[in-house]
Every structure is written in structure tokens, then in C-alpha cells.
Design goal:
By secondary structure, this protein is an all-alpha fold. The protein contains eight helices and no strands. α1 crosses α3, α2 runs antiparallel to α3 and α2 packs antiparallel against α7. The longest helix has 38 residues.
């Protein structure tokens, strides 16, 4: 039933775009908040107040993005199960490679790792709010979040390749008309 809903309503790309937006803007808000704190040097004022608002925004976006990453993973898994056998070998390689290090960067495997990474980052972000001791790890959090955001954007690129270069999930009539247009 879930797979049918995903297929009928094309839920994977819908959920993915929300996931990318929530997480990218959540991390960006956290970076801007850190920059504002550095600029204000801890003095009260407009910049410090803006920093606190940005941190609150980051917290909500990271939690929402982590939840969306779970939906992205499960809708993607359902789409992969449905489409894998209809894909060209090159598209199957992008989706799930078995070549050593490339396997970790395949779209499906990276999605699995990113789901876990963003759930951990969201929990870490919550703990930054709750614990003075963990507050000392904010710079490490930012560095890990930036790396995870880069991986998320790379995964978005591979998803785009699957759809726009290999026609994954696109009806055969649309694929043939796209191929004709490229000539």
C-alpha cells in the first residue's frame, strides 16, 4: 500500500525537496547565528538577539529536516524497488553501485547514511540547547553539519542524474520525446 501511494502521488521527489530545503536552511541559519555571535563578541544588542532567533529557527528546521529525511529514505526505497529492474545499467550503477568506495556514494546507500546522519545531527542540535557541557561542541557540530549538507547536495545531484539523464521514473513516452529533442 505504501509503495502504491509513493508511486501514484510521486511522493519521493516531493519529500526530497522539502528535506533538502529544511536541512540546508537549518544549517545555513546555524552558520549565520555563529557568525552573528562572533561579530557581536557576546555584547547584548540587535545582532545577539538576531543570533538567538536564528538558532531557534535552525533548531526547528533541523528537527523537521531530520523527520523529512526518514520519509525521503522510505519513499526512495519504495521507488528504487519499483524502478530498479526497468533502469538502464548506468542508472542502476548510480542508484546502487557495488564497486568498493563508489558503493558508499551511490544514491540509495548515501540516502541510508544521510538519514542516520541527520537524525544524529538533529539530536545533537537539541542537546546543544539543553546542555552547557555539550554547548562546547558547537563548532564540531557545524563542521559535521556542513559536510553532511555537502553529501546531501551530492545525493540530490545523483537523483537528478537518475531522472534527467536516465529517465528513471519518467514514463516511456516522455523519455522517447526527450531523446528526440536532444538530437
Amino acid at each position: 500500500m505504501f509503495a502504491q501511494l509513493v508511486s501514484t502521488y510521486h511522493l519521493h521527489p516531493i519529500v526530497d525537496h522539502f528535506t533538502i530545503a529544511l536541512l540546508a536552511f537549518g544549517i545555513a541559519a546555524e552558520i549565520l547565528a555563529a557568525a552573528a555571535i562572533l561579530l557581536s563578541r557576546g555584547r547584548p544588542g540587535f545582532i545577539t538577539a538576531s543570533s538567538q532567533k536564528l538558532r531557534a529557527t535552525s533548531l526547528m528546521l533541523m528537527i523537521g529536516g531530520a523527520g523529512a529525511s526518514v520519509l525521503s529514505y522510505f519513499t526512495g526505497d519504495a521507488e528504487a524497488d519499483r524502478l530498479r529492474d526497468t533502469m538502464a545499467p548506468a542508472a542502476q550503477h548510480i542508484l546502487s553501485s557495488s564497486n568498493g568506495g563508489a558503493a558508499y556514494l551511490s544514491h540509495a546507500v548515501l540516502g541510508h547514511y544521510l538519514m542516520h546522519a541527520f537524525l544524529i545531527l538533529a539530536a545533537w542540535r537539541v542537546m546543544l540547547e539543553l546542555s552547557r557541557r555539550i554547548e562546547r561542541t558547537r563548532i564540531a557540530f557545524l563542521l559535521v553539519a556542513i559536510v553532511a549538507a555537502g553529501a546531501l547536495l551530492y545525493q540530490g545531484k545523483t537523483g537528478g542524474e537518475l531522472v534527467y539523464e536516465h529517465g528513471a521514473g519518467v514514463s516511456s513516452a516522455k523519455v522517447s520525446s526527450l531523446a528526440t529533442e536532444r538530437r
